[in-house]
Design goal:
By secondary structure, this protein is mainly beta. It folds into 2 domains: 3-210, Cathepsin D, subunit A, domain 1; 238-412, Acid Proteases (Cathepsin D, subunit A, domain 1, Beta Barrel). The protein is 12% helix and 36% strand. The strands form 3 sheets. Strands 1, 2, 3, 4, 5, 6, 7, 8, 9, 10, 11, 12, 23 and 24 form a 14-stranded mixed beta sheet that branches. The chain has a 7-stranded mixed beta sheet with strand order 19-18-13-14-22-15-21. A 3-stranded antiparallel beta sheet has the order 16-17-20, with no helix packed on it. Strand 2 (76-84) and strand 3 form a beta hairpin. Keywords: Aspartyl protease, Hydrolase, Protease, Signal. Residues 1-22 form the signal peptide. Pfam families: Asp (PF00026).
C-alpha cells in the first residue's frame, strides 16, 4: 500500500463529527508527538537560540520586516501530516505558531506534480538553531479532505539544517513574519495557509485553534496528542469560557501571537507585573524574565540543578509547591504543581535523577522590559486550549479537561 494512499485514507477519516460553535469549521487535523530528547542544558541552549532569534526582530526597524523568525527546538516535537501536489505527497511538518512560512524538503524531497508552479523567487528563513534556503513554488496543499488550497505558496528546501526526522514547517504565525523571506522581493508577504483557507472561503473565519494533551510516557510516541482546528473552536476540548485578549502593542512581541500578562505564585506572591510576551508552540519550556525567575525560584524553594540546567526540588518537598497564576485580560489561569513539573518518566533523558522534580519554568536571560519578557511554551500550552484569531487580532485561551490533570507526579507523590 503506497504512503500516498494511506494519506488519502487518513484524510477521509478527518470529518468533524462533534458539535462546534460559533463559527462553521470545516475540519480538525490530528497533531502527532515525536520524542526528540536532548539533555536539559542542551534543551535550554536551543530554546534560548530561538528566543534570541525572536528578539532579533526587535533590533530591526519595524519597516524591515520579520525575516528572522523563530526555530523549533523541542524535546517533544508536535507535527501534522500535510499533502502537497496532485496526487498529494504527505509531509510531516512541525507546527509553529512563531513562524509563518510553510515549506517542505528537509527530509523527504519535494515531489513535483502537475500542480507545481515555480515562481522564480528564492526563499529562506533563519530559525536560531536551524534554517532553510530554497525555491518558492505555488502548489495544491491538502490539509484535510475538505480543506484544499490551490496555488498555496510553498518553500522547497535546497538545503536545511536542524530538522532531522521532519520534512519542514507548517507556519501558522501572523503573515507579517513572512516579509523579508523572499528574494528578490523582500517587501513581499507570503500568504499563510490559514489566510488562504479564509480567502478561498474554505473556512468562514480566519483563525486556527490548537489543542494539546500533556505528555505522559514513551508509549505516546507517534500517537495523536492534540488537534488543529481551522475556522472556529472545538468546544469539546474546552472547559468554561474562552478568554480573548488583544495582541499586545509592545514591540517586538506584537509581531507574533503576543499578549500581556502578569504572574503571581501561591496565595498572592508577586512574580511578574503586567508585561508583554508571546504564546509559542515551538518553545519547550515556559520562560520568564530573569528578575521574575529569581522571585519564582525563591517562592518555590527550588534550586538550580547543574546536571540539567533546570530548577529542581527534592521529591519530598513537591507537596509544598503551589499554583503559578497567569493573569490574562483579567482572567486567572492556574498552572498547577503537576503542570510545573517536567514529566518524571523523562528525568534521566535530560540528565536528571528520579529523586528530584524538575520544573518547566526557566530564565529567559534578560530582565523585564525588553518587549519580550515571557514565552508561554509547551509547558503552558499542554494545559490550555488556544485560539489564534487573525480576523480580530487576538489570542483566545481556555481551560481544558487536562488543565489540572495529574500526570507528571501522579497523586503528588514521587
Amino acid at each position: 500500500m503506497s504512503k500516498t494512499f494511506v494519506f488519502l485514507l487518513a484524510l477521509a477519516s478527518l470529518a468533524v463529527t462533534t458539535p462546534v460553535a460559533p463559527e462553521d469549521i470545516q475540519a480538525t487535523v490530528p497533531i502527532v508527538s515525536t520524542f526528540n530528547f536532548i539533555d536539559g542544558k542542551d534543551l535550554i541552549q536551543r530554546d534560548r537560540a530561538r528566543i534570541h532569534q525572536l528578539r532579533s526582530v526587535g533590533q530591526q526597524k519595524k519597516s524591515a520586516g520579520g525575516q528572522n523568525t523563530p526555530a523549533y527546538n523541542q524535546a517533544v516535537v508536535h507535527s501534522a501530516l500535510v499533502g502537497v501536489g496532485s496526487p498529494p505527497t504527505p509531509y510531516s511538518l512541525i507546527i509553529d505558531t512563531g513562524s509563518s512560512n510553510t515549506w517542505v524538503g528537509a527530509e523527504k524531497a519535494y515531489n513535483r506534480t502537475r500542480t507545481s508552479k515555480p515562481t522564480g523567487s528564492k526563499v529562506g528563513v533563519s530559525y536560531g538553531s536551524g534554517s532553510f534556503d530554497g525555491d518558492q513554488f505555488l502548489d495544491l496543499v491538502t490539509i484535510s479532505y475538505k480543506l484544499t488550497i490551490p496555488d498555496q505558496s510553498i518553500g522547497v528546501a535546497n538545503k536545511s539544517k536542524g530538522f532531522n526526522g521532519f520534512d519542514g514547517i507548517l507556519g501558522i504565525g501572523p503573515v507579517g513574519l513572512t516579509r523579508g523571506t523572499l528574494q528578490p522581493n523582500r517587501s513581499e508577504f507570503v500568504p499563510t495557509v490559514t489566510d488562504n483557507l479564509f480567502k478561498s472561503k474554505k473556512i468562514n473565519y480566519n483563525s486556527v485553534a490548537v489543542s494539546f494533551v500533556p505528555t505522559i510516557g514513551l508509549d505516546e510516541e507517534g500517537q495523536a496528542s492534540g488537534e488543529l482546528t481551522w475556522g472556529g473552536v472545538d468546544y469539546t476540548k474546552v472547559e468554561g469560557k474562552i478568554t480573548y485578549t488583544p495582541i499586545t502593542r509592545t514591540f517586538p512581541a506584537d509581531r507574533y501571537w503576543g499578549i500581556d500578562q502578569k504572574l503571581t505564585y501561591g496565595k498572592s506572591v508577586p512574580i511578574m507585573q503586567s508585561s508583554a510576551g508571546i504564546v509559542d508552540t515551538g518553545t519547550t519550556l515556559t520562560y520568564i524574565a530573569s528578575d521574575a525567575f529569581a522571585r519564582y525560584k525563591n517562592a518555590t524553594g527550588s534550586e538550580y540543578d547543574e546536571d540539567t540546567g533546570l530548577l529542581a526540588i527534592p521529591c519530598a518537598k513537591f507537596g509544598s509547591l503551589n499554583n503559578l497564576h497567569f493573569y490574562i485580560n483579567g482572567q486567572k489561569f492556574e498552572l498547577s504543581p503537576d503542570a510545573q513539573a517536567w514529566p518524571r518518566i523523562f528525568n534521566e533523558a535530560i540528565g536528571g535523577t528520579n529523586d528530584k522534580v524538575y520544573l518547566v519554568i526557566a530564565d529567559i536571560g534578560d530582565v523585564t522590559g525588553t518587549g519580550l519578557d515571557f514565552i508561554n511554551g509547551m509547558g503552558f500550552l499542554q494545559r490550555f486550549y488556544t485560539v489564534y484569531d487573525t480576523q480580530k487580532r487576538r489570542v483566545g485561551i481556555s481551560r481544558t479537561p487536562h488543565t489540572f490533570r495529574k500526570v507528571n507526579v501522579p497523586g503528588g507523590r514521587c
